[in-house]
Structures are given as C-alpha cells and as structure tokens.
Write a structure and sequence with these properties.
The complex is a heterodimer of chains A (612) and B (677). With 612 residues, chain A is of the alpha/beta class. Chain A has 26 helices and nine strands. By secondary structure, chain B is α+β, with helices and mostly antiparallel strands. Classes of the chains: A alpha/beta (612), B alpha+beta (677). Chain B: One of its GO terms (molecular function) is ribonucleoprotein complex binding.
C-alpha cells in the first residue's frame, strides 16, 4: 500500500495561492504587491475548482499561480521596494527631528529601481514588444494631454509628451500610418510597424479631468512601465532606421509652439548629414530622408541652422556613425539599381499609398486641430502650412500660391469685400472639411472633394476597421437600397440575394401556377407566361404571383429544413447541443440586429426622395 | 561696575522729564512712561516718573470712603452699613435694586457692560478706560503695558566692542590638548582614509547621470529559453457605431435611448450612445476616456485570463450527417384513424399477431377489441377497476389475449374466430384433461362455457395489486407478469401448458418496474428503478447489470435480434444498449421535453418509437448490423403530434402493428390513434 495522500498537499491546492497568502509570503504591503503584479504582468488565474484550490472554502478570492508568486519573490524590484520602505522610515524620522543634512544625504541615496530586466523578461523579442505597445501608446498620449497636479508631476507629463512626439515623428518618418478613424472617444490611428498593426487612441484636445473613482496610483505604475518600454522600443526603432535617439529638441521652437516641428527637422537633418558625410548608409533611407525633407521642411533658413546643429551632434556621437557603417557596409549610391535590398523592395511596395498627399500642399485653417492634421498629412507626404495662431514653424503662409487644399471646418460665410486676388485664390484652391483627409487615407486614394466641400453635409464617416463578420455593412446597404428604389418594389424582408434567387429559380414557381408539375426548365416558364396571357393576366400581376408562390415554396422548404435540423439535434450530445444552441442564438441575434439596421436604412432612404 | 554707575546717573538725569508726564497721570493707573535718549549711552530709553510712597501710591490717590481695609466683606453682611469712613462714621449700604432694576440697568445704562462689582462699596462701578485697555490687551494676549515696545533695538550690555572681558575667570594653566592635534581623531580619520583607498567607502554618485534611465538595445542578446508570457488580449477595434458621423441608421431611437439609460453600466451593449455631429469641430471631449483606460488597466492586472479557442464553424456542421429521411421510408407519418374510449385514460393496447386486431384497456375497466383497418369496435368487456395490461399471445395457431386487472389475469378469446383456431385455443387454455395441480399460492380457474369469452382466470396473491405489465415469451407458452405492489412477490412467470405459476426471484433488490424475455436466448431482463439486470433462466444466475444512469426507468424494449436494448426513463432520457459492447449505454438521447412513457421496437421493420408525456411520439429508424464493427444507425424520422395532454399525462403506450409499418398510440386523453405510412 502506498503512502496516504494528504489533503491540500498536491494538485490545485499547491498550484494556486490566494492573494492574501501571496502578500503574506512576499512580506510586502498590498500596494507593493499590486505594483509588482503590474510591472511583472502577473494576473490572477481561475482554478478549475475554486473549492479545491482554497482548502475547501468557496469564499470569493483571487488566485495566483504559486509559481508566479515564487518568481515574484526573487524579483530585484521587490528588494528595492523593501529598501524604499526603510528609506521612507529613515527620512521621515530625520525630517521629524529636523536633521536636514541627514535628510538631504538620505534623499541623495534614495533607492531607485530599473525595469530593464522586466522589459526583457516580458517581451522576449522586439516583435513581442511592438505587438504589445497599443496600451502603452494610449496611456502616453492620454497623459501627454493631462494637466499636472500634485499627483501627476509636470516632469512626468513632459516625458509623456516627449515620447508621444517621438512616436509620431517615427511614424511620420517611416510612413507607416495606415488607418485613421475619427470616433466619439477620440482619434484611432493604426500604423503598421514590422508587419504588426499598432492601434492607438488619442483623445481630442480638451482638458481631461481625472475622475475621483480612478486610482491614480495604478495608472502611474502602469505609466512607469510603459515609459520604460516605449523608451527601449523607440530606441530600437530609431537606431534601426538609422536615426539618432533621442531626437534633439529645439527648446526655443518648442516654446513657440512648434509641436512636433521642434523635433522633426533636427532628426531628419542629422540623418542626412550622417549619410552624406560618410557617403555610405542605406540608399533607400537617404532617398526617404530627402523626400521627407522636401515634405516636412520647406523653410530654407531652418534647414541651414539645423545642418550646423546636426553636425555638432554628429561630432559628439561618432560611435553611432561607426555602427551605421558596420551595419550597412555595401552602401553607396551607385549600387542601388544593381542590388535592391529587402528594405528598398518593401519601400517600393509601400510607396503608393504612403505618398498619397505628396503632390499637394495643404493649409490648415485655424479651427482645425493642427497637431492631428499635420501628423496625418505629413505621414502621407503632404506639405502643410498653418496660421501663426496655431503655433509657429509653418513653412508656408496662407498667401502661398502652391497651396492646393485648405482644410476648413466652419460654415461658408460670404465676404462682401473680397479683393480680386483673394477671389482668384479661392477659385484655385479646394476647400475641404477635415473628414476628407481621413477618408482619403482610409480609402487609399484621393476622393472627390465636392462631397466634402466647405459647408456641405458630410457623407457618413465609416470605421476603416470594419464591423464584425456578418454584421450589417452600411456600404452594401446603400447600393441595395438604391436598387430597391430604382425598381420601386416594396419588398418586405428579403435581401438582395433572395431577389437573385427568385430570378434564378422562378421557373419552379411558375410550374405550380399553371399546374404543369412534370415540365421543368425555361419552356415551362414560357408556357406558363403564355397561359397567363391567354387568361388575360397582366405581366406585372403574373410576376407577383410567381414571386408569391416562390416565397411560399421557400418557406415550406425552410420549414422542412428546420424539421430535419431539429431531428438531427436529438442525436447531439448535451455539450454539443448546448454549443449549437448558443451559436444559433448568437446568429439569430446578429441577424436581428442586421435586420433592424437594414430596415431603418430603408426607411431613411424612402423618406429622403420624398423630401427632395 | 562702571555701567551701573552710568545707569544711576541716567536715572537721575531723566527725572525732570518724568515729572512732565505727571499731569496726565491721573488718567492712567500706571504712570505714563517716557522715551528719551540717554545722555550716557546715546540709545533711546524709557523712563518712568518717580513714585512718591505716600501720595503717589495706588491706595493713597483714591478717595475711598470706606476705610475698613482689606477685610472679608461678608463680615458686614448682616449689618446695615458696609464700613466706616475716614471720620469713623458708618458708610451705609447702598440701595440694592431687585432683578428688574438690574436688568433695566443693563438695558438703559450704556456703560453697564463695562462696570464691575466693587467689593468695598458693595456696588457696581464703571471701569476706567485704562482698565478696559488692560483687559483688551490681556484678551489679545499682548503685554498689558500699553507703552511697551516689543520691537525695540537690542541693547548690548555685556558684549560688543569694548566690552570684552579681559581677565580670565580661572587661574588654571592652559591644558596641552588645546594646542596639540588629537591622536584619536587622527586614527579615526585614517581609518576612513584607508577605507576609501581600499574602495570600501565609495562616494555618492553625481546626481545628474543616474537621473534618466539609460537606453540601449535591449533585444540584442538572445532571449531566454523560458516561454514568453501570453500577450494580453487587445481591446476590440471601433466599429461604425463609434464614428463621430455614423450612418443615420445607427442613431438610436428614443426607445433605445431610454432602454440604454435604464440598463446598468455593466449590462450595456455599447459604452456610449451613437451620436452624429455635423462637423469635427463640434465633437466634445469624451468624458469617460480616463475611466475606460483605467478599466482596461484593471482588466490587465486584476482579471483572470483564460485562453479560449473561438469556434469559427458553421453550427450546422455540428449536426451529424444522416441519411435522408425520405430514403428510409416506410414509416408512419400521418394519423389515419381515431378510436375513442371516452374520457378514461387508455393505459394499454396490444395488437394481434396477424396485425388485424387491436385490444385496448382503459382506467375505467373497459377492454375494447377493434379492427385496425376501419376502427370498428367488435367487442367490449367490462372489469372492475383499472386495466393494467393487455397482451396478445404471440402464438399464431391460437388466438387469445390476456388482460391484467387487480390481482387477476383474464385470458380472453376474441369472437368470430375460425373454428380451427377456436378449437386450438380452447384446448390450449381449457384442456379436457387438466395437468396435475402443483403447490402454488396462485389459482388457475377456467370457465369454458362463458359467453363473454373469458376462458381462464389466474388469481394472483391477494395483496399483489394491479398487474402493470404482461410479457409473453416468444413461443407463447410462458408469460411473465409484474404487479405494482412493490413487495417481493411482484414478478410471476406463468406457464400456460402446465397451468403452473412460479416466482422466479425469492428476493430481489429494488422495486421491479418491468420484465422482458429475451427473444432468442433463455434470458430474462428485469428493470428495477435504476438498473436493468439480465438473468439466465436456465442456469438461474445473473449475467450482467446494465447501468443506464436513469433515475427512474419507465419503459424498456429489446430489439428482435436480441442484441440491443432500449431503456427509457421518467427523466426524459432514452438509452440504447449494445449488449455485446458494454454495460453503459452506447447512446443517450434526450429529446422529449417530458417523461418517456413507452418504447417499442417494430418486430420486422427497422423502426422504433417512443412516446412521452409531452404528447408527442418520436419515430426512429434503428438499424443494427450483424458485424460487430459497425455501430447501429439511429436516425430520427418523424415527430407525431395528435394527442392532447390530460393532467400532465400524454401518450401512455405505443405499439407497432405486426407486418405493417403502422403505429398505434394510446393517450391519456382517451383516444387511440392509428398512424399509417
């Protein structure tokens, strides 16, 4: 006989640990535990049987893997947190006693922790990290737009806005933006980076207030992790693209409200300088950079300044140039046509959609958001200008002749005293609403501007991410409803497909109308038609009859199918039957949703021509 | 010493200025001070006027009429006077007003609130402005002296230039340690120096370098061989509903809006209502933005994650591929005729071996014999109490059926039989020479001459109750009966040829529900409430126990081949057993919504039927194969509906018609339906 098995010594009882047990084991406070879990990405697990995992108790607790907690116990950050606890005690004691110099010494030797190893642990490869930066980007962009307060320090916000600008800069530079969606919540962007779709949400530019029911500590812990993660990711992205990271910031221009412009020009200039001075480096990137210069920087004076700054920076960092040289030794402009690299190939493949706006010059009127549309237009190669009220650094003024489009978001006002020049300008340029830019990007082509002209009612703005499969598609609905209107057939419920079916299978229906059951094919239809004509029936009514019969027959067939299905359902096992029923339920619900939307569409369409 | 002398002079010099302030001194309690510049030190100083001990003192200046001095005033409490004046005359007690006067004084006299009780004169006296000033200052926490200046310049009496003390305080000689460097301090310092040299003590790093995290290519080194953690699920991408300018059909109606507002936050399908803005500039800030990001983070670190495989299949693919129903004809699919028993529940029916006759019994005690083809009643018998079971003898050379009532079995010969068969039947049931009687509690009594056709009656033991089932052996000589009184003697096996009855079981576990003879082998099935036991009658032992997993078995039938058994239960389940295969069911079907009442295999066609309390009859195609490898094929064919429910009871029994794919069903509504193909 084997040894007696004791309860709670193996299986789920050992594999799982309640949260309070974990906190007890780690000997840290709940807040520290929470912080560790966030940083290490450890989350509770659902045991198959809560009773078995919790020594027979079914009390509501969260469970963690015992192994996860074991890993946490060896975490260096945990030690640092303990040190910090001791430090906090010491410093409060020193402050309480008024020992200022000791307090200052303590403050200088304050324990800090680094998250590098955690980043490496959580994201084994760079691709893993790219795949998971969605949330990080959302948070960074949110905090970049928050006002500072006693809990959210200004330096944190500054760092977030710097990271946000660096990301936008990279996306603009690599031309990797793919989709944009103006939603109620904010603006969704989707970029394709290393074949991974990165989606992030940026709130509209309003002052956000942190609600009272939100735990800021949790958000700040996440933000801490995200800042580090994004730092490393951007470093790698920039260095892989042959750019210097961090891109130097021109403080004076930043103060003047240049936004991304405070960074962007520098980055591009520096890169060009590096490649020029060495006469090596990626040719594709050189070309890309030149293009970027053309589009992004138009002001010659700026360029001149920046060359100097760039050269200084370059001199200060010779090691990176060496790296560049080592990585791309076969560069040189002569080698391009003979040796197309993978990157150049991918560049050519991408070129069509990403240079969408390159032939055009845009001017943003002052009520459009400059940061958003500058980013959008430049990501697709457009030249952009803006009035000084939206910030400095605009390469063109409003009177520039090269402007082809003006992005304007206000109703039309007829100005009485317009000079001839202004009239001429107004005639030459196209005045479009901001949605045009986004719809063009999503469509991948330049759309007709008339639909989006200033003051017109905009066509609906659809999500480029599409709906769920099988959901109602408004684009399809439009064409269908048009057909319906053209035919003026008051169809009650059938869709397009059923109509087609009718045309195809109409033969069978007619067979019944004339009681010729044995005959099939087109002949019977014709015979039926002739018979109907002979009986003095009009063609329209005949058609209607045919359809009615057709529908009846379909209904009957459907009922038969339903019966057979019900029969088949009997033989399913309980589990499968439940699955089947769930699926059917979902299908039915989706169909009902689609149906209501289609019905509403039809109602709207019916009303519209009546009003015209 | 010198300074003191100075001070003395100073005081004297200031005396004339002090007298100047004397004129206004009667207003003040304290004599008014005077700030002058000292002639000696050159600093400003405050001088108080001299106080003459006789006339200038507090008490001497007041002309207090009462001269008794500082004695307790209550000594004069009983006297009309309060003391004596300077001349020795009594000072009379002042008139003391009543409470009303006091009150009026507080109202009328504006100075009453600034007056205080004077003990000496025994009356309220108004306070002087100086006294009020002192009170005010004390209240404010200030120095009571009005002239005191807290911010006066410091006067250095003993320090400062020219006031150093020259002479030493003690005459002890200067110790050595005052000028020699300390050895111990040096040792201590050298210890630190050595530690620094050896690198044991490291100075704190400059603050600026460690301020910002160093960035480097973290993914340069190969990753660890641990499996990477699962990435967190991404939030759903926005759909057209989220657009700032959605198509109009997405906009909610008023009803939808109200419904959305009334549902709880977590039950809402969308976290916001779709809204349409005519231009981008009008779109407001989204007030739930931070809240939603926070919720996402809570999900990331607080929500347990389960990896689920999303089945992206057509639900129809789950349904097994079955042969087409139409290819499995014939089977009954319509109701051809209806035979009615009135209101009584028809519990039992049986069809004759030639398939032409049906006998049915109801709860009212009526047994009807009628024709299948036309539904014409031929004969009717009435018994006392309910009819529990009716069963035709399977023999084809004779023709009779058995009716089970309370404690009795009646053997009945139908009318209008051909004479050959009638004769054979009579000789089988009531032979001229009776076989020798055996010892048994059961009595066989024959009554051959009777008009109503009841030719033989078996009297079961008196307490056995209603006979609820009669099962014939294939050859028609043996029949088993089950009575519903669930005592030990509920099962009997009767042998017609020997007129002998025996109880096969002395003791049986559980209440017997049903029994069945195996069609080929000498086996006997006994269904108790939960299990089906298979006994070998020849060897008299248990062969196997089938475990259907049903809580209460209601019905059972065996396939004509003898290898398959179906068992139905009151808990809606039907179990198909392959006797060769296992004790556990090969297939469990749950399709009836109420209890299964009856099951029957067709004797020749591959059909079986089940009836239930939900009022439906389900026809199945049940084909078995002789090779052991192929599983039996079960195909549901048709649901027959036609019976009404009565007190929660539906179709109580179904029976197939021999040699025809027809079904007869008896319902609790008193109707018997014949279903034809």
């Amino acid at each position: 006989m084997g040894r007696l098995k004791q309860k709670g010594k193996a299986g789920a009882a050992k594999a799982y640990m309640t949260r309070s047990a974990a906190v007890k084991k780690l000997q840290c406070s709940l807040a520290d535990f929470r912080r560790l879990c966030i940083l290490k990405g450890i989350f509770p697990r659902e045991p198959r049987s809560r009773k078995k995992a919790n020594k027979g108790s079914t009390a509501p607790t969260s469970f963690y893997y015992t192994k996860d907690i074991g890993y946490l116990a060896h975490e260096p950050v945990l030690n640092k947190l303990r040190e910090h606890k001791a430090f906090a005690k010491k410093i409060s004691r020193a402050l309480g006693r008024g020992e200022w110099s000791i307090a200052k010494n303590l403050e200088d030797s304050k324990p800090t922790y680094r998250l590098d190893h955690i980043i490496k642990e959580r994201y084994h490869t760079f691709i893993d990290a790219i795949r998971d930066i969605d949330d990080a980007l959302c948070m960074i962009f949110l905090f970049a737009s928050l006002p500072s307060n006693d809990r959210v320090s200004p330096s944190l916000i500054a760092n977030c806005s710097r990271l946000a600008a660096e990301w936008q800069l990279y996306v603009m530079h690599s031309r990797s933006l793919r989709k944009v969606f103006l939603s109620i919540k904010g603006i969704y962007y989707q970029a394709e980076i290393m074949d991974q779709d990165v989606t992030w949400l940026v709130p509209y530019q309003f002052t956000q207030k942190i609600p009272s029911d939100v735990d800021v500590r949790v958000m700040l812990t996440f933000l801490e992790l995200y800042q580090t993660l994004l730092g490393f990711v951007f470093f790698k992205l920039y260095t892989d693209a042959g750019l210097v990271y961090p891109p130097p910031l021109d403080a004076s221009r930043d103060d003047a409200g240049a936004g991304i412009g405070a960074f962007s020009v520098h980055t591009v200039e520096k890169n060009i300088h590096i490649s020029k001075s060495d006469n090596v480096g990626k040719t594709a990137s050189t070309r890309e950079v030149r293009q970027a210069i053309k589009t992004i920087t138009a002001d010659q004076s700026f360029v001149d300044e920046d060359v100097d700054i760039g050269s200084r920076d370059f001199a200060a960092k010779p090691s990176e140039v060496d790296e560049e040289f080592v990585v791309h030794p076969s560069g040189g402009e002569d080698a391009i046509p003979s040796l197309p690299t993978l990157q150049s190939l991918s560049e050519t493949r991408k070129s069509t959609p990403t240079s969408l706006f390159s032939p055009y010059t845009f001017f943003l009127s002052r009520e459009t958001s400059r940061t958003v549309f500058e980013f959008l237009l430049k990501s697709f190669g457009g030249r952009v200008g803006w009035p000084t009220s939206s910030g400095s650094g605009s390469p063109i003024t409003e009177s520039d002749d090269s402007i082809t489009h003006v992005i304007v978001d206000r109703p039309v006002i007829n100005k009485a005293n317009e000079s001839a020049e202004e009239k001429e300008r107004r005639r030459k340029r196209k005045y479009v609403q901001p949605q045009w830019v986004v719809d063009c990007i999503n469509a991948g082509k330049i759309l007709v501007e008339d639909l989006y002209a200033q003051g017109t009612t905009l066509p609906p703005h659809l999500s480029p991410f599409g709906g769920k499969p099988g959901a109602y598609d408004p684009t399809v609905g439009l064409s269908h409803s048009e057909e319906v209107l053209a035919e003026e057939v008051p169809e009650s419920e059938d869709g397009q497909s059923s109509e087609q079916n009718e045309v195809e299978e109409g033969v069978g229906g007619v067979v019944e109308t004339v009681n010729v059951r044995d005959v099939d094919g087109a002949e019977s239809l014709r015979a039926a038609e002739l018979a109907a004509e002979a009986a003095g029936m009009e063609y329209g009514t005949f058609e209607k009859e045919v359809r009615k019969l057709q529908r009846k027959r379909e209904k009957k067939e459907k009922a038969v199918d339903q019966d057979e299905e019900d029969m088949g359902k009997m033989l399913l096992s309980n589990k499968k039957r439940k699955l089947y029923e769930r699926m059917k339920y979902g299908e039915k619900r989706r169909a009902a949703e689609r149906e209501t939307l289609q019905r509403r569409r039809r109602e709207i369409d019916r009303k519209r021509p009546g009003s015209d | 010493m010198e300074e003191e002398g100075d001070e003395g002079e100073d005081d004297e010099g200031s005396s004339p200025s002090g007298s100047e302030s004397d004129s206004s001194s009667d207003l003040h309690i304290f004599p008014k001070s005077n700030d002058i510049i000292s002639e000696v030190t050159g600093h400003p100083k405050r001088v108080y006027p001299e106080i003459e001990p006789e006339y200038d003192s507090d008490s001497s200046t007041e002309d207090d009429p009462n001269r008794v001095g500082n004695i307790p005033s209550h000594w004069y409490d009983d006297l009309p006077h309060v003391g004596y004046d300077i001349n020795g005359k009594r000072v009379l007690r002042p008139a003391k007003g009543d409470e009303l006067d006091k009150f009026l004084a507080t109202v009328e006299d504006p100075t009453s609130w600034t007056s205080a009780w004077d003990k000496n004169t025994q009356m309220n006296k108004p306070l002087s402005p100086e006294e009020l000033d002192i009170i005010r200052r004390l209240q404010a926490g200030e120095n009571p002296d009005g002239g005191y200046d807290p911010y006066g310049p410091t006067v250095e009496w003993f320090t400062g230039k020219g006031k150093e003390e020259v002479m030493p305080l003690s005459a002890a000689p200067e110790p050595k340690r005052r000028w020699l460097p300390s050895k111990w301090e040096k040792q201590k310092i050298m210890k630190i120096v050595r530690a620094i040299r050896r690198g044991r003590i490291v100075g704190s790093k400059p603050k600026t370098a460690g301020d910002k995290p160093q960035l480097y290519d973290i993914w340069n080194e190969p990753p660890s061989n641990q499996p990477p953690p699962l990435p967190a699920p991404k939030p759903a991408l926005p759909t057209h509903v989220d657009s700032y300018n959605p198509p109009e059909e997405y906009l909610p109606t008023d009803a939808e809006r109200k419904e959305w507002e009334n549902t709880d936050l977590e039950d809402r399908k969308y976290d916001h209502l779709p809204q349409k803005y005519s231009s981008l500039r009008l779109v407001p800030a989204y007030d739930q933005f931070i809240k939603q990001r926070f919720n996402r983070q809570l999900d990331l670190y607080l929500a347990p994650r389960i990896q689920r495989i999303r089945l992206n299949i057509d639900p129809h693919s789950l349904i097994p591929k079955l042969p087409s129903v139409s290819s499995l004809r014939p089977f009954p699919n319509y109701c051809s005729l209806k035979f009615t028993h009135g209101n009584a529940r028809v519990r039992c029916i049986s069809t004759s071996p030639d398939g032409a006759w049906v006998v049915s019994g109801d709860d009212g005690g009526n047994v009807n014999l009628w024709e299948v083809n036309v539904g014409r009643e031929v004969r009717k018998w009435c018994f006392d109490g309910k009819i529990g079971a009716v069963e035709w003898c399977p023999r084809t050379d004779t023709s009779y059926f058995v009716v089970g009532t309370y404690d009795k079995l009646h053997f009945i010969v139908p009318p209008n039989l051909p004479s050959v068969i009638l004769h054979a039947t009579q000789s089988a049931l009531a032979p001229a020479a009776l076989p020798p009687a055996t010892e048994s509690p059961i009595k066989w009594s024959s009554s051959p001459g009777q008009e109503d056709g009841v030719i033989l009656t078996i009297l079961l033991p008196a307490v056995s109750g209603l006979t609820k089932q009669i099962a014939w052996h294939r050859k028609g000589d043996y029949l088993a009966t089950v009575s519903n009184r669930e005592s030990q003697g509920s099962v009997w096996i009767h042998q017609v040829s020997r007129r002998h009855s025996q109880a096969p079981f002395k003791k049986i576990k559980g209440a017997v529900q049903l029994v069945l003879f195996h069609p080929i082998k000498p086996h006997f099935f006994v269904a108790t409430q939960r299990y089906v036991r298979l006994y070998n009658l020849a060897e008299q032992k248990l062969i196997k126990t089938l475990m259907p997993g049903i809580k209460w078995i209601s019905s059972m039938d065996i396939h004509p081949s003898g290898d398959h058994v179906i068992v139905g239960g009151y808990d809606k389940k039907l179990c198909w057993f392959d006797l060769e295969l296992n004790d556990k069911p090969y297939k469990i079907l749950r399709y009836h919504t109420r209890a299964i009442r009856s099951l029957h295999f067709h004797p020749s066609y591959p059909l079986f039927a089940s009836s239930s309390d939900d009022g439906t009859i389900q026809i199945f195609h049940g084909r078995t194969y002789s090779d052991l490898m192929t599983d039996p094929l079960i195909v549901p064919l048709k649901i027959l509906r036609g019976h009404d429910l009565n007190d929660g009871l539906g179709v109580l029994q179904v029976k197939w018609v021999n040699k025809q794919p027809w079904l007869i069903s008896a319902g609790a509504d008193g109707n018997i339906l014949v279903w034809c193909s």
